[in-house]
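I am going through a labmate's work and have reached the protein record below. What it holds is a sequence and that sequence's fold in token form. Please read both lines and tell me whether the tokens look consistent with the sequence. Do not assume that whoever made the record got everything right. Thanks in advance; the entry in question is below.
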Amino acid sequence: MATLKAWDAINGAAGRCVATIGNDIEDMIYVKNIRAKVEKKKTEIKVLGQTGAKHKANGWKGTGTMTMYYATSLFRKMIDTYIRDGVDTYFELLIENKDPSSDIGRQTIILKQVNIDNIDIAKLDINSTELDEEIDFTFNDVEIRNEFDQVVGE
């Protein structure tokens, strides 16, 4: 029976996140965690002669959340531009898992047309020695740039 080699479990801190905003590239070293999800939209289909409902995929939506150290004004400036000028900002996020101790290589996903949903515009906390913030976002497209190599069991 094959089992996963322990060193092929990916270290969650071994990776990178990079934002491309227009012509600017931002190495997002302040990200603590990020998660992007694709949810399939489905229509319920009723079929004559059956009591159960069937489901047919008819679209998808991309959503995500990132928690960061409260150490950049970048996203607050995007929201300010929207508030002041009505101009919304869309950008790309490259998220890469690359654990050098693993034999399965790296996976690189690019989220396209990312748009911020909400942000803490200002924050203080007398009980915290390190401020962080959580930002929700949506995205409209995905590119799988690199895939993990096939897992070979022991």
In short: Residues 116 and 137 are 4 Å apart (CA to CA). The chain has a mean pLDDT of 94. The longest strand covers residues 53-69. The domain at 14-146 is CATH 2.30.110.40 (Pnp Oxidase; Chain A).
